Amino acid sequence: MNWQDNIAIWQANQEKLPDYLKKELTNIQTNQAQAEEAFSTDLEFGTAGMRAIMGPGSNRLNLFTVGQATEGLARLMDKLSDTEKKRGVVISYDSRFHSAEFATHCAQILGNHHIPVFLFDALRPTPELSFAIRHLKAYAGIMITASHNSKEYNGYKIYGEDGGQMPPKHVQIVVDEMAKITNLFEVETASVTELESSGLLTYIGEDVDQAYLAKLKTVSINEELNKSQGEDLKIVYTPLHGTGKMLYRQVFEMNHFKQVYVVAKQAILDPGFSTIKTPNPEFMETFDLAKKQADEVEADLIIATDPDADRLGVAVRNSQQKFEVLTGNQIAAIVTQYILESRHQLGQLEPNSEIVKSIVSSELPAKIAADYEVTCCDVLTGFKYIGEEIERLNETQSGHFLFGFEESYGYLLKDFVRDKDAMQAALILAETAAFYKDQNKTLYDAMQEIYQKYGYFVEKTCSFEFEGLDGAKKMKQLMQNLRSQLLTELNGTPIVKIEDYLNQVCHQDQNTQVFTEYPKADVLKYYLADGTWLALRPSGTEPKVKLYVGVETDSQQAADTKIENYQQAFSDLMTQ
Ligand SMILES: O=P(O)(O)OC[C@H]1O[C@H](O)[C@H](O)[C@@H](O)[C@@H]1O
User: ipTM of the predicted structure?
Assistant: First the structure.
């Protein structure tokens, strides 16, 4: 169907649209480029479900595209046995515009299929949703969030019964069912009152909070340390206008961190994120307000969580006492070092322990792990793969999960959650900071010690935007070109190995070998003769190709120069 016909269908169904969407439908037609983009194609399920700008259209996040996905999930569940189906679905949502409305709409669609729904009575973090699925023994979960994207976006994630993001093979069934819904306006809903009275809709909140908080108490490794040092540690915390606000105080207090100063202006649930450009805890500017407050109260560290509280960013004082934002990889290295060292000291480092990371994350935690005879398992980008590895370890009883992370600021320690959990990460960071403070050191000092011991492993990610309708096609083409003309050197340094995760082949020493331990993914990873690695992949959540570079040298300065040079050389190649 062409986009004009698609608009005509939306217009014909005007009476089903809420007022704001009616207005937006009229407005969008005055801008042909935007209208074409919104109506000429359908949203796709990416790394983490669907994420898009909100507005009318089949390629936008709105009541009807959210409805289509939920109807897909409902039809998948219709195929289950009655007992399985009756386990129901847990739904949560973040602080964004329309998040609560979308969540209720999902409940009404599932309810129409006689699927029980457990809907949070107010916004809650993504990790709490993941926990709630297992806690309530539900069959699936839905989270309405666009994570750290800007305010125009919203998103939709589906979780499976293990609390992890639904694995691709199940998502495919949902996607196939979605494709059968050719008219988005035909998806039926039940009324909320009806569902409430029939018992199909249950509101959850406080009980699940208490159960989740109790589990969060098990994250600490050395409770005695927290008891003795927790009172002295000064933390400035910002929930960046999102769900972290709901539980942070109890989380810190229950774990003996009493001096937590919240950034009051960012503890307001504001879907416009009016104090920041984007609610992304990886950017320096996101910490501006927090930094001011941290200087006033002489805080040791700043912790920020994104609006759905699954990712976490940290700023620490450097040797000049100025706050510096750590990268996702640096946070992972510091936490890995602390977990392994403290467990080792306490005699709690079990044999067959394992950390899990994505293939585009730093090699430094792997090197630290090796030093403690702990395995490091690599998985594809997407926390669901870390969830799958945890499940595998549990099922086969072949190992003990200690820590999972991605360079994109996602961390998990305890498997009562099967996605990244910023609350767990906040706790372990506070404990780590307390550990070093006890020795008169900061987390910045900790990072320097790690570099000195293991080498300067430094990584940088940059991305190339591919907006617009033909963006996805252009990204695929770019990857294809790099596959058909394999690079042999970069900046004069030979490329010794190339892994192609789509064709599942590894090119090395003029040989091509097949590898099948990962699902197929559009990723190319290059290994250079000097130990540098580069990876390139189209993002699954944004219209971007991401370039990741990791180097290992003997000084920070040498690492920075090396990274700049390689990144530049590769970027030049891509834009030629
Ligand atoms: O690099 P992308 O495909 O955009 O994904 C970036 C991140 O997106 C989401 O937050 C996923 O849950 C993460 O697992 C993933 O690392």
Answer: 0.96
Distant-in-sequence, close-in-space partners of 2: CB < 8 Å, separation ≥ 6:
40
- Whether 58 is a known active-site residue: answer no
Write down how long the chain is.
576
Domains within the chain, CATH numbers bracketed: 3-211 (3.40.120.10), 217-454 (3.40.120.10), 456-575 (3.30.310)
Distance from C-alpha of 374 to C-alpha of 357, rounded to nearest angstrom: 13
Q: pLDDT tens across 504-548, in order?
A: 999 999 999 999 999 999 999 999 999 999 999 999 888 899 999
- Ligand 1, atom nearest to 538 Cα: 3
How far apart are alpha carbons 335 and 326 in whole angstroms? 12
| 147 within ligand 1 shell (Cβ under 6 A) | yes
Residue 122's alpha-carbon distances to 85, 243, 256, 304, in angstroms, are: 25, 9, 27, 21
- The pLDDT tens digits for 291-339 are 999 999 999 999 999 999 999 999 999 999 999 999 999 999 999 999 9
Helix (H) or strand (E) holding 302: strand 301-305
Report the distance separating Cα 172 and Cα 252, nearest Å.
39
Q: What pLDDT was estimated at residue 167?
A: 79
Strands 117-120 and 89-93: parallel
Top mutation candidate among 383, 461, 466 for ligand 1, by most atoms within 8 Å of CB: 383
Q: What is the per-residue pLDDT across 377-419, written as a single tens digit (0 to 9) for each?
A: 999 999 999 999 999 999 999 999 999 999 999 999 999 999 9
Q: How remote is the CA of residue 541 from the centroid of ligand 1, in Å?
A: 6
- Which ranges of the chain have pLDDT less than 50? none
What pLDDT, on a 0 to 100 scale, did the predictor assign at position 47?
62
Question: Which among 186, 179, 182, 125 has a CA at the least distance from the CA of 157?
Answer: 125
- The protein residue whose alpha carbon is closest to atom 13 in ligand 1 is 382
CA distance 253 to 124: 19
- Which two structure tokens, joined as six digits, stand for 47? 């790394």
Please state, in angstroms and rounded to a whole number, the distance separating the CA atoms of residues 402 and 567.
33
> Does the beta carbon of 92 lie inside 6 Å of ligand 1?
no
Instruction: Assess contact for 72 and 178: CB atoms under 8 A.
Output: yes
